[in-house]
Protein backbone atom coordinates (compact mmCIF):
# COMPACT_ATOMS: atom_id res chain seq x y z
CA UNK A 1 0.00 0.00 0.00
CA UNK A 2 1.45 3.37 -0.99
CA UNK A 3 1.68 6.29 1.41
CA UNK A 4 -1.08 8.08 -0.50
CA UNK A 5 -3.43 5.09 -0.21
CA UNK A 6 -2.78 5.02 3.51
CA UNK A 7 -3.40 8.77 3.86
CA UNK A 8 -6.60 8.43 1.79
CA UNK A 9 -7.88 5.52 3.93
CA UNK A 10 -7.05 7.35 7.15
CA UNK A 11 -8.73 10.53 5.90
CA UNK A 12 -11.90 8.63 4.97
CA UNK A 13 -11.97 6.84 8.32
CA UNK A 14 -11.66 10.17 10.10
CA UNK A 15 -14.96 11.51 8.82
CA UNK A 16 -17.38 9.81 11.19
CA UNK A 17 -19.60 12.74 11.94
CA UNK A 18 -22.64 11.28 13.70
CA UNK A 19 -22.42 8.88 16.61
CA UNK A 20 -25.79 7.35 17.45
CA UNK A 21 -27.36 3.97 18.11
CA UNK A 22 -30.77 2.57 17.27
CA UNK A 23 -31.48 -0.68 19.14
CA UNK A 24 -33.21 -2.97 16.69
CA UNK A 25 -32.79 -6.10 18.82
CA UNK A 26 -34.86 -4.95 21.79
CA UNK A 27 -32.64 -6.87 24.22
CA UNK A 28 -29.27 -5.10 24.04
CA UNK A 29 -28.24 -3.39 27.27
CA UNK A 30 -24.79 -2.04 26.26
CA UNK A 31 -23.48 -1.34 22.75
CA UNK A 32 -20.01 0.03 21.94
CA UNK A 33 -20.16 2.30 18.91
CA UNK A 34 -17.67 1.06 16.28
CA UNK A 35 -15.10 3.76 15.54
CA UNK A 36 -12.04 3.10 13.35
CA UNK A 37 -9.01 2.86 15.66
CA UNK A 38 -11.23 4.28 18.44
CA UNK A 39 -10.57 7.80 17.11
CA UNK A 40 -13.48 10.21 17.16
CA UNK A 41 -13.42 13.20 14.82
CA UNK A 42 -13.31 16.65 16.37
CA UNK A 43 -16.74 18.24 15.83
CA UNK A 44 -18.60 14.92 15.62
CA UNK A 45 -22.25 14.92 16.67
CA UNK A 46 -23.28 12.59 19.49
CA UNK A 47 -27.00 11.80 19.53
CA UNK A 48 -28.34 10.12 22.66
CA UNK A 49 -31.95 9.03 22.39
CA UNK A 50 -34.60 8.78 25.09
CA UNK A 51 -34.06 5.68 27.25
CA UNK A 52 -30.33 5.78 26.50
CA UNK A 53 -27.18 7.12 28.08
CA UNK A 54 -23.82 7.43 26.35
CA UNK A 55 -20.66 6.72 28.33
CA UNK A 56 -17.55 8.36 26.90
CA UNK A 57 -14.37 6.42 27.74
CA UNK A 58 -11.04 8.17 27.24
CA UNK A 59 -7.74 6.30 27.65
CA UNK A 60 -9.50 3.49 29.50
CA UNK A 61 -11.25 5.76 32.03
CA UNK A 62 -14.86 6.90 32.05
CA UNK A 63 -14.65 10.58 31.14
CA UNK A 64 -18.33 11.54 30.98
CA UNK A 65 -21.88 10.21 30.87
CA UNK A 66 -24.28 11.91 28.44
CA UNK A 67 -28.04 11.95 28.98
CA UNK A 68 -30.55 12.16 26.08
CA UNK A 69 -29.82 15.02 23.69
CA UNK A 70 -27.50 16.16 20.90
CA UNK A 71 -23.90 17.04 21.69
CA UNK A 72 -20.96 18.35 19.66
CA UNK A 73 -17.70 16.61 20.52
CA UNK A 74 -14.99 19.23 20.13
CA UNK A 75 -11.80 20.72 21.54
CA UNK A 76 -12.35 20.77 25.26
CA UNK A 77 -14.51 17.66 25.42
CA UNK A 78 -12.84 15.26 23.01
CA UNK A 79 -9.44 13.63 23.15
CA UNK A 80 -8.86 13.69 19.39
CA UNK A 81 -8.01 17.15 18.10
CA UNK A 82 -6.83 16.22 14.63
CA UNK A 83 -5.37 13.37 12.62
CA UNK A 84 -2.80 15.83 11.31
CA UNK A 85 -1.25 15.99 14.78
CA UNK A 86 -0.56 12.27 14.51
CA UNK A 87 2.06 12.45 11.70
CA UNK A 88 4.90 11.54 14.05
CA UNK A 89 3.00 8.38 15.08
CA UNK A 90 2.40 7.22 11.52
CA UNK A 91 -1.30 8.17 11.82
CA UNK A 92 -1.74 5.81 14.77
CA UNK A 93 -2.77 8.35 17.37
CA UNK A 94 -1.77 7.35 20.89
CA UNK A 95 -5.02 8.81 22.28
CA UNK A 96 -7.98 6.43 22.08
CA UNK A 97 -11.62 6.90 23.03
CA UNK A 98 -14.82 4.88 22.92
CA UNK A 99 -18.53 5.56 23.25
CA UNK A 100 -20.73 2.98 24.96
CA UNK A 101 -24.48 3.36 24.61
CA UNK A 102 -26.41 2.03 27.61
CA UNK A 103 -30.09 1.18 27.22
CA UNK A 104 -31.86 2.61 30.29
CA UNK A 105 -35.32 1.30 29.46
CA UNK A 106 -36.95 -1.36 31.61
CA UNK A 107 -36.46 -4.90 30.34
CA UNK A 108 -39.47 -6.95 31.40
CA UNK A 109 -40.46 -10.59 31.63
CA UNK A 110 -36.98 -12.03 32.17
CA UNK A 111 -37.43 -15.58 33.46
CA UNK A 112 -35.74 -17.22 36.44
CA UNK A 113 -36.04 -20.56 38.17
CA UNK A 114 -34.25 -23.26 40.10
CA UNK A 115 -32.28 -25.56 37.82
CA UNK A 116 -33.13 -28.63 39.92
CA UNK A 117 -35.67 -29.34 42.65
CA UNK A 118 -34.57 -28.35 46.13
CA UNK A 119 -35.01 -31.07 48.76
CA UNK A 120 -36.53 -29.81 52.03
CA UNK A 121 -37.53 -31.75 55.14
CA UNK A 122 -41.01 -30.92 56.41
CA UNK A 123 -42.40 -32.16 59.76
CA UNK A 124 -45.77 -33.09 58.22
CA UNK A 125 -44.84 -34.22 54.71
CA UNK A 126 -41.30 -35.55 55.10
CA UNK A 127 -38.92 -34.80 52.22
CA UNK A 128 -40.45 -32.30 49.80
CA UNK A 129 -39.11 -31.56 46.31
CA UNK A 130 -39.53 -27.83 45.81
CA UNK A 131 -39.06 -25.84 42.59
CA UNK A 132 -39.49 -22.14 42.02
CA UNK A 133 -39.99 -20.09 38.86
CA UNK A 134 -40.81 -16.51 38.13
CA UNK A 135 -40.16 -13.41 36.10
CA UNK A 136 -38.30 -10.22 36.89
CA UNK A 137 -37.65 -6.84 35.33
CA UNK A 138 -34.39 -4.95 35.19
CA UNK A 139 -33.23 -1.46 34.34
CA UNK A 140 -29.80 0.17 34.43
CA UNK A 141 -29.98 3.08 36.88
CA UNK A 142 -26.27 4.01 36.89
CA UNK A 143 -24.65 3.48 33.45
CA UNK A 144 -21.13 4.32 34.63
CA UNK A 145 -21.20 1.79 37.49
CA UNK A 146 -22.86 -0.83 35.27
CA UNK A 147 -20.03 -0.61 32.74
CA UNK A 148 -17.31 -0.57 35.40
CA UNK A 149 -18.65 -3.48 37.47
CA UNK A 150 -20.72 -5.67 35.14
CA UNK A 151 -19.89 -5.35 31.44
CA UNK A 152 -16.31 -4.08 31.45
CA UNK A 153 -15.05 -3.78 27.88
CA UNK A 154 -17.73 -6.06 26.42
CA UNK A 155 -18.98 -4.10 23.42
CA UNK A 156 -22.29 -5.93 23.04
CA UNK A 157 -24.01 -6.93 26.29
CA UNK A 158 -27.52 -8.36 26.16
CA UNK A 159 -30.22 -9.36 28.66
CA UNK A 160 -29.20 -13.01 28.23
CA UNK A 161 -25.69 -12.14 29.40
CA UNK A 162 -26.93 -10.86 32.75
CA UNK A 163 -29.39 -13.75 33.12
CA UNK A 164 -26.63 -16.17 34.05
CA UNK A 165 -25.19 -13.79 36.63
CA UNK A 166 -28.55 -13.25 38.32
CA UNK A 167 -29.45 -16.93 38.27
CA UNK A 168 -26.06 -17.79 39.70
CA UNK A 169 -26.71 -15.46 42.64
CA UNK A 170 -30.33 -16.37 43.38
CA UNK A 171 -30.48 -20.15 42.84
CA UNK A 172 -27.84 -21.15 45.44
CA UNK A 173 -29.53 -18.97 48.08
CA UNK A 174 -32.99 -20.39 47.45
CA UNK A 175 -32.69 -23.51 49.68
CA UNK A 176 -31.53 -21.59 52.77
CA UNK A 177 -34.08 -18.83 52.33
CA UNK A 178 -37.00 -21.18 51.71
CA UNK A 179 -36.14 -23.30 54.77
CA UNK A 180 -36.75 -20.36 57.11
Instruction: Classify the secondary structure makeup into a structural class.
Output: alpha+beta
Strand order of the largest sheet: 5-4-7-2-12
N→C terminal distance = 71 Å
How much helical structure, as a percent, in the residues?
10-25%
- Into how many domains do the coordinates divide? 2
Total number of strands:
12
User: DSSP helix count?
Assistant: 4
Which percent band covers the strand fraction?
Answer: 35-45%
User: What ranges have pLDDT less than 50 throughout 5 or more consecutive residues?
Assistant: 77-94
Sheet bearing the most strands, described? Answer: 5 strands, antiparallel
Please trace the helix and strand order, writing H or E for each element: HEEEEEEEEEEEHEHH
Shape by Cα distribution? elongated
State Rg.
23 Å
Overall mean pLDDT score?
A: 79
Amino acid sequence: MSIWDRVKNEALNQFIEVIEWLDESGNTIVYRFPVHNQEIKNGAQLIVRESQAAVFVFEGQVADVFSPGRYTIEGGNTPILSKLGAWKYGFNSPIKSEVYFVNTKQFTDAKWGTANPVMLRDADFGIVRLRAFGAYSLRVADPQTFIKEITGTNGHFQVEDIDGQLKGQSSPNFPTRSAK
